[in-house]
Structures are given as C-alpha cells and as structure tokens.
Amino acid sequence: APQKVLVARHPQRPYLLDYIKMLFTDFVELHGDRNFRDDPAIIGGMAKFEGEPVVIVGHQKGRNTKENIHRNFGMAH
C-alpha cells in the first residue's frame, strides 16, 4: 500500500491534460456549467481518439503549489 501512495503522489505522474496531449487529437475544451462557474479542477471536452469522436471528462491537479491552488488540488467544487 505505501508503494501505491508513492506512485499516486509522484510529481512526474501524468495527469489528464498529459493524457489528452498523448492520446487524442482535435481536443476542444468546454468551460462552465451555467449554474456555478468554470471549475478549474474539472477538464471536459470533445476530441478524437483514433479518428472516432469522444467526450473526455476528468479532474486535473497542479504540478506545483500555485497550480494546485488554482485547480483546488484536483477536487471539484
């Protein structure tokens, strides 16, 4: 179990935006829910995976303290 925690918290671990850049093309991010506001912890949008249209939704943490505060440490509001 301690090893899993170390891997999950590793500073170079890929986050959602890293996977989007590696795996998808034509990503168009959507913002806001028209009720609360744009939540920087949540990334959502449309893209193509191997030519097929897909919808992507996930959470994004920051790589440093400033980014983590902006992204609310990856926790949605």
TrEMBL record:
Its EC number is 2.1.3.15. One of its GO terms (molecular function) is ATP binding. The keyword RNA-binding does not apply. One of its GO terms (biological process) is malonyl-CoA biosynthetic process. It catalyses: N(6)-carboxybiotinyl-L-lysyl-[protein] + acetyl-CoA = N(6)-biotinyl-L-lysyl-[protein] + malonyl-CoA. Pfam families: ACCA. It is an enzyme of class 2 (transferase). GO terms for cellular component: acetyl-CoA carboxylase complex. InterPro entries: Acetyl_CoA_COase_a_su (IPR001095), ClpP/crotonase-like_dom_sf (IPR029045), COA_CT_C (IPR011763). Residues 1-77 form the CoA carboxyltransferase C-terminal domain. Keywords: ATP-binding, Fatty acid biosynthesis, Fatty acid metabolism, Lipid biosynthesis, Lipid metabolism, Nucleotide-binding, Transferase. Signal peptide: none annotated. Pathway: Lipid metabolism; malonyl-CoA biosynthesis; malonyl-CoA from acetyl-CoA: step 1/1. It comes from the Bacteria. This is acetyl-CoA carboxytransferase. It comes from Flexistipes sinusarabici.
